[in-house]
Each structure stands twice: as C-alpha cells, then as structure tokens.
Amino acid sequence: MSFLEEIQKRRTFGIISHPDAGKTTLTEKLLLFGGAIQEAGAVKNNKIKKGATSDFMEIERQRGISVATSVLAFIYKDKKINILDTPGHKDFAEDTFRTLTAVDSVIVVIDVAKGVEPQTEKLVEVCRMRKIPMIVFINKLDREGKDAFDLLDEVEQKLGLRVTPMSFPIGMGYDFKGIYNIWEKKLNIFSGDNKTTISEGVEFNDVNNPELDTIIGEPAAETLREELELVYEVYPEFDQEEYVKGDLQPVFFGSALNNFGVKELLDCFIDIAPNPQPKQAEERVVDSKEEKLTGFVFKIHANMDPKHRDRLAFVKIVSGTFKRNTPYLHVRNGKKVKFSSPNAFFAEKKEIVEESFPGDIVGLHDTGNFKIGDTLTEGEKLNFKGIPSFSPEHFRYVNNADPMKAKQLYKGLDQLMDEGVAQLFTMEMNGRRIIGTVGALQYEVIQYRLEHEYGAKCSYENINVHKACWVQPEDEKNEEFKEFKRVKQRYLAKDKEGQLVFLADSAFTIQMTQSKYPTVKLHFTSEFE
Ligand code: G4P
C-alpha cells in the first residue's frame, strides 16, 4: 500500500461527552463492529466513581485502565480507525483538551433525556474554537427523552453548532420504533429484545411509499413524513466541505446500549470524517502528505510499575513514516533519539511496530526526556502549536514534608508536571512553589504518587488565587511594565517554561490591573499570538 493510501485510510478521532451519556458503551459497540473485541463489557470504564476522591486504589485502578484504553484501534471496511480516549471526569479536563489536539475529528455523545450537559458544553467549545469537525450522536433513544426538534435546538443554542440531522427517530422510549436514515435513505426498525445483532435496515427511498404505513403503522408513518418535511425545510443539507471545516455538524440518533443507529453512524463516519489533517506549527503548516516524519507528544503516562520509572510518551504522527530504530530529532533538546520498541495500539493491547503513518499514535518508552508538546522531526526545527496550558482552577502551596527527601520531591514534582498532571508555579519573590490544578482530586493523586513512586512526602497550604494570568507586555522596557512588576511583585510567578504569570486573587483584580496597565496583556492560556 502506498504512503498516500495509508493516509487516506486513517480516521483518528475522540469521543467526548458528559459522564454517563454513553461514551464507553458507544466505544465498545464501535469496537464490536470492527471485530476488535468479541463481547460486550470488554472496554473498561475509566470513570472515577463518586466518593472515590480519597480512595487511592481507585485512582490507581483508573490510571491502569486509562493506559489500556488510551488509544483503541481497529480496522473497519478497510479503514484504520484510531479512537483516542478522553477522560470524562471534570478534574481531568485538561487531559482531554490535550488529547483533542491529536484528533482529526470528534463524536459528541448526548443523552436524549438530559440534553446538553456542562461537560459537553466545555469540551465542544474547545472543539469549536479549534474548528474540529464534529458529529453529534444523541443516545438512549430507547428511553423517554426530549423531543427531537427541541434537542436539535438545544444543541444549536447551547453548543453554538449548526446542525443537520442525518437520521431521525421514529417515536421514543416505549414507543421507539426505529430510525429513518436520511443519509442512506433507509429505514431501521428497532427490535428491543434483540440487543446484539445488527439490524440491516430496509431501503426506503421515498417515505411516501404506503409500505411505510404497513411497517411502522399509520400514525407513526404520518408523523415521520411530517417531521422529515420539517427537517428538509429547516436544516441545511449536509455538505462535506462545511463539516470538515467545522461549520456544520451532522446529527445521528440511536441507542448505543441496544446497538441501534451505531452502524449507521460508523458507516457514515468512515465516509465523511477527515483523514489526517495538516497541522499548524509555529514555523509553518505541516501537511500529512509530506514524506518526512513529524509528530508531537500529547500525553505522557507513567509506568504502572513504580520500580521502573519509565514512562510512555504518546506521539501523534503528523507527517511521514515513523520507523523503528531510526534516529529522529527531539527538537526541544536538540538531540537525536531512536526507539527500539515503539508501541502501536490495537483494541486493548499494544505491540511493537516497525512503521506508523500519519494519524497513528505511537507509544515511546521514555525515561524522562519528553514532556507534553515536544516535537520529533527528521532534522527540521519545528514546534507544533495548540497545546497551551490553561489557567488552573485550584492553587495550593506545596511544602516538603520530609526534609531528608528534598531531591526526590523536586524530581517527582518535575516529572509529574511534565506528564501534565498539574502545573507548577514558582513565586518570583521567595521561590515558593505553587501547584495549580483543574480539580481538587489531583492534589491527592500527586501526594500519593510522590510517596509511592518517588519516596517523597509533601503537604499543602492554602493560597488565595483566583486565576493564573500569563503576562504579555507590549514592551518589556517601558515604564508601565516596570511599574506593574514592582507593584504586583508579591503576585508574580514563573511557570515551568519560565513564562511570567500573574496570580490574581479575584476577577475584580484582573479587571483593575488590566485597566491600570493597558499595555500589559493578561491571558488565561499560556499560548497567545
Ligand atoms: P460514559 O462512558 O459516557 O460515562 O457512559 P457509559 O457508557 O458508562 O454509560 C452510562 C450508563 O448509561 C450505563 O449504565 C450504560 O449502560 C447506560 N447506557 C448507555 N447507552 C445507553 C442506551 O442507549 N440506552 C440506555 N437505556 N442506557 C444506556 P449504568 O447503569 O451506569 O452502568 P452499567 O452498570 O450498565 O455499566
């Protein structure tokens, strides 16, 4: 197979949802279609159960699962599908944001009864800003839920999307009869007690055909005709180009648990979803068809065995062919590195591969040389954009609780921050360290891992910080910036990259500071123009 064919056959995507909408169930059904797993229940849910905050074993269990399900790959109709797992728990939202830098498209799962939930809103906003092509799957149609048109409205309004239904439900909950596949002009009838077989569907080019009344009954057929008329009238026609540009989002209805509407989703997905896309680096745009290898690290996972402190760096291949035992440039540290056992991921296992292509993810064993955002090339000095740090939500001073183990503590902190577990800020004034996280859960994870993996102990101390603002002066030498630095000295810190950060104690402070020092721009993310 030629290099171009390899690219064209790849579909790399993520599934995002609010917890419980059915992401795990849908993933599992997709894997079943690909023949990658044989039975339901094989994909482990990496949800953190409620109340598990202080249960370290639960955290460890979840870490174990999340390495196993980080990338799930399978072949379906000659297409190589790579699903990148995204944690649903809000405390791990930053992990999800980073994973979204490595996908070429996403599927958004929404619960028909609950509609658009907060976590969906947050994640979709990121996808929308980055113009990632999205398909929406409205799940649990076997249950009573909201009216289909109301839901489409909600998706448009709350998520800011422009939708076009590709299928439409016939009834709902107890009366759910099936769906009409607008994309393929097929009727799929639901058989509630037959939960594992795949319904093939009846071709139905014209819903005015009286046979429809015989199959689903006259009232349901009439309603469907009326609803479809409204669909054609109100919603734009599907347009491939608009979808790929992130300007139009196709919507499917179904029930993942009952395997309903999933095949339709997958069949359409492999037809329309984009293959590996060009990616913007600081220096230039890199096209997937370029023959030289480029790739970037979007995730680092510590090895589960605390005795060997090696880690697995997940690299998304952007262009070229990644080859085993071939030296590549690690752009940040300027060194050539080669890998004797790069891992590729299949359903739930990983194996050593000789070659990987754009769209693929390779897992590289690492002893601490990589951090998130690092780029690999064949020699060109490139830095891929789009893996910014976001302002954390929680901030605490971190203290060394065992003076004999200071070295271990700092090494541990350093490596955990490289993995992206949390962010470390060092106060300009006194060198004290502050850990910033998205959720409170991370503080326990850090404490636990420092102790078990590095033999170090830490304690935390509260600090009143509302947001971390990355500081961008118009001119480093102007008086205004000098005054800003003098007046705000007690609130200034450096992030791990050495960028200046203002730790503001309230939204009001940010507003006041911004109006007092208009030439000193404050940003909530570490990457800005
Ligand atoms: P998540 O990964 O998005 O968090 O959701 P997950 O797939 O774990 O699904 C959450 C719950 O919703 C599960 O039930 C699952 O069985 C159920 N579910 C998923 N799809 C459908 C569907 O199409 N119809 C119905 N009725 N339910 C669905 P649970 O009781 O929380 O978990 P479990 O004990 O069944 O695993």
From TrEMBL:
Keyword presence, Protein biosynthesis: yes
Domain Tr-type G: 8-277
Sorted UniProt keywords: Cytoplasm, GTP-binding, Nucleotide-binding, Protein biosynthesis
Gene3D superfamilies for this protein: P-loop containing nucleotide triphosphate hydrolases, Peptide chain release factor 3, domain III
Positions of GTP binding: 17-24, 85-89, 139-142
Primary location class: cytoplasm
SUPFAM superfamilies given in the database record: EF-G C-terminal domain-like, P-loop containing nucleoside triphosphate hydrolases, Translation proteins
Top-level taxonomic group: Bacteria
Coiled-coil intervals, chain numbering: none
Subcellular location: Cytoplasm
InterPro entries to which the protein is assigned, alphabetical: EF-G-like_DII, EFG_III/V, G_TR_CS, P-loop_NTPase, PrfC, RF3_C, RF3_dom_3_sf, RF3_GTP-bd
Homology family: Belongs to the TRAFAC class translation factor GTPase superfamily. Classic translation factor GTPase family. PrfC subfamily.
Function as written in the Swiss-Prot or TrEMBL entry: Increases the formation of ribosomal termination complexes and stimulates activities of RF-1 and RF-2. It binds guanine nucleotides and has strong preference for UGA stop codons. It may interact directly with the ribosome. The stimulation of RF-1 and RF-2 is significantly reduced by GTP and GDP, but not by GMP.
Cited PANTHER family: PEPTIDE CHAIN RELEASE FACTOR RF3
Protein name as it appears in the record: Peptide chain release factor 3
Organism of this sequence: Tenacibaculum polynesiense
Gene for this chain: prfC
